[in-house]
Amino acid sequence: MKTLLATLAAGTAVAAAVALPAIGQETPATRTLTLTSVQAKGAEHAIDTPPRGDSVGDRFVFASTLRSTGKLVGRMEGDCLAVDLKFEGMQCTLTAVLADGSITLQGASLTKRIPGATAPSQDVYAITGGTGAYLGAAGTMRRSGNGKSDTDVFELR
Question: Which of 15, 66, 72, 106 sits between 20 and 30 A of 140, alpha carbons compared?
Fold first, then answer.
């Protein structure tokens, strides 16, 4: 019995010591990065899979310039796959390539409103990681605009 109690006490002490560093640690600061994404003519391509016309499996690839206060700071590369004709849904993977690293993004874009939802769920992407200055990045990127010139707001944490 004494051995069991000693083992439990030691285990509790180890568990407390492991948990202690996490208590009181500051949450990483958030960083907002606001960029303008401008798509050049010819910088997108639609790949129409059978059947002809809009159908599940169609792909859209694109690239656009990223600017901050008018200055060129990078590129946005994207690949979207049509997955839902009813709500005009697309599954997209994007990468913002910047001078100090890259930010990877993923999300679904729906053009039509889902019943009960307040708005279409387009234009919000999860930040799934990054490289360089953005290594281990998480958060969201919100896009607003007309598709040719958009504002991309990255909330990094």
Answer: 72
pLDDT band at 30 (very low <50, low <70, confident <90, very high): confident
The helix (run of H) or strand (run of E) holding residue 112 is none
Closest to 125 (Cα-Cα) out of 97, 106, 153, 149: 106
- Domain 28-156: assigned CATH number: 2.40.480.10
Question: Cβ of 57: how many Cβ atoms within 10 Å?
Answer: 12
Residue 4: strand, helix, or coil: helix
Report which of 10, 25, 33, 149 is spatially closest to residue 101, judged by C-alpha positions.
33
Nearest by Cα to 114 from 88, 90, 142, 96: 88
The predicted-structure confidence for 88-133, as pLDDT tens digits, reads as follows 888 999 999 999 999 999 998 777 777 877 665 568 899 999 999 9
Using CA atoms, how far apart are residues 127 and 66, in angstroms rounded to an integer? 17
